[in-house]
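Record 1 of the preview.
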Amino acid sequence: MSKGQRKVPAQALTRRLSVIGVYWWGQRDEMKQASRRKRPEDGSFGDKLLRSAQQARDWVQGKPVRVRVTYVPAPQVDVRKLRARMGLSQTQFAAKFGFSLDSIQNWEQGHRQPEGPARTLLVVIAKNPKAVEEALGSS
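->
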């Protein structure tokens, strides 16, 4: 990855391109009918679809593109302190809350930081572990 490019999860691009593909195939009959009609001056469906695909490609390549990205801030959680406060071993903590033991070890050793849903779940565990235990059906 060259300097200035951002790392984009493959799922994000796949999801967007899947939606484009589904919309494309689901609308092909209407597109055939629409192609017989005079196209509006502001651009056809095909032009909009092409622009959307080009924007997705540019965004993945790190080019400046107007896209909507939503960030939900979640505070950092010290997994080792959280686990110690609960009096659980790494294995017990992983089993109780559905994490892999490798993830717990990597987080505690600083090799990786929890991200996304795992980070959110850790924040909730830190605030109210009983609620998570109840929701997951663990004791």
